[in-house]
Amino acid sequence: MKTTTTKNYMLEFSGWAQGRIATDPDPSNELRGVSGYTFALPGEANLDRIIYFQEKEGVIRRSHCPQVGVKVSGGYEFVTRGSGGDVSFVSKTPIEKGHPLYHAKVDLLDQPLFDSRNSMIIYNGFGIVNPFILSVEGKKLTLQRRFYAEPDNPQEDLSSYDISSLKQYTMSTVVMNSVEWILKTGVLDRTAFRNERLALLQADLKPLQLQLAQHPQDKQLKIEIAALNKRIAELKINDPDNRRTNQIGTQVLLSYPLNAKAAWVNDKKIQPPAAWPLNLWMGGWDADALGFAVHGYVQIILED
Question: Over 80: is that where the pLDDT of 174 sits?
Fold first, then answer.
């Protein structure tokens, strides 16, 4: 009988992501932001609803905001031998400097969206991330696999599934202002966090206003000033109970098994022996940056 041997990567990852999405009462496909509290600023491209885990085309950097980038922050590579109750370790190696997956980029591929089937599953922003294709890109080692609500009936479009198949995968609110959330985001105090950003932007505005006084026909300066003024006006709305401030404390859990029949290792298609468990939370929603913190875990299981 063949002895079962598996190679596993148990990875922890974290960082900041961007999601340029409209907010209630705007519809989810609103392109600029009108009635909600998120907006495409003067000079910026339209809101695209895409979730970005890495800096790439489509990400818009706003001054004094966290840089987009989710990376492996720890974990283990380990090999086991055996099955059932007769399993033993062959090796255990921490994911640290020198390992191919140390600080590897963690990304979601193919322009994923927060999809709620037109709010039929749950209200916008807390639906299902679709498509959900996780990529871990290290040094000479890249791993990719997708989650499907029904792996035996994989569908690209959520509208092709019965809602009962999707309910278990909608994001759920875990807790508001947990110690974990505070430490991982470094926000510490929501109101002070926004006031700190406000002071930085007000300081940036003054020299631009002086430049405009000297060059009153400069269109680019006018656009930059208009964008700063909009950000400043929004940050001044800073009551702790207001959505702009309060929702910084939202922490939502997402638990998807990476269960597609196929996966890719260094662009080579394989059939893994089992689904790859994945849990992550998204939190610290920053309405000025249009971004949020990410912290999660995934176990990658391969035949050795």
Answer: no
